[in-house]
Amino acid sequence: MNLKKFLNPFEYMPLRKTLCWGIVALILISIFVWQAGLRLSSLTQVNFAGDMLWEATARQVAAWLLFAVLLYAAGVMLSDSNIRFWDVAADNLFARIPFDVTLLIFAVPRWRGVMAAVADGNINTAMQYMGALMATGLLSLVLVVWYLYWSYKAFAVSTNVRNGKGVAAFAVCFIAAYVASIYLLPLI
Q1: Inside any domain, residue 174
Q2: Beta strands in the chain (DSSP E)
Q3: CA distance 169 to 77
Q4: What total number of domains does the chain contain?
């Protein structure tokens, strides 16, 4: 696979493909979150509260659409191009795949127990698994940076808002979606 296609797949993939892959990822991660007893608590955070399948799916859809609507609005305001909502939404959904991959750490039952103990403030568990926690944190950081990078590239391609103006608009939209999702997702 070409490195350019990997770094910016939105330049090369048609809308139908990004939308289909994004929907498949959304369905699979919703099922996984439900089965793992997790709950999406913001745009990029989960907790151990658990959800029913319909709630897990509704939270995933709400987080995606919230961010996509804000990106679309920014694109309409800042771009001279004709912007279609589904271009922005489909690319944004596909860009979310690296974040979904970060959640797969909870697929390992033992590691899920360690993460739950650390989340509860158990210092002994944290000290016992310090190396593994650091490695997991580093991997998660790489995947979240990948998610943010792809999300920006998706925004830039689908709205034609790039460079400084595009980065600033994307950052404002991400922060607004993150904060709004903290208050919106508990309502579901």
Answers
A1: yes
A2: 39-42, 45-47
A3: 10
A4: 1
Q: What tokens does 119 get?
A: 């989340």
Spatial CA neighbour of 70 closest among 184, 164, 146: 184
Structure tokens at 59: 């939270």
Tokens at 7, concatenated: 């770094």
Rounded Cα gap, residues 66 and 56, in angstroms: 15
In tens, the pLDDT along 20-70 reads 999 999 999 999 999 999 999 999 999 888 889 999 999 999 999 999 999
Distance (Å, whole) CA 111 – CA 187: 29
Task: Give the confidence band of 115 by pLDDT, cuts at 50, 70, 90.
Answer: confident
- What is the model's pTM? 0.90
Per-residue pLDDT at 1: 59
Distance CA 111, CA 109 (A): 5
Tokens matching residue 116 = 């739950």
Phi, psi at 161, each rounded to 5°: -110, 110
Residue 6 domain flag: no
d(CA 94, CA 41): 20
Upper half-sphere CA count for residue 92 (Cβ side, 13 Å): 28
Distance between CA atoms of residues 177 and 162, nearest Å: 20
- Is residue 158 within 8 A of residue 88, CB to CB? The reply is yes
Give the structural domain span for 182.
13-187
Residue 78 lies in a domain: yes
112 lies in some domain: yes
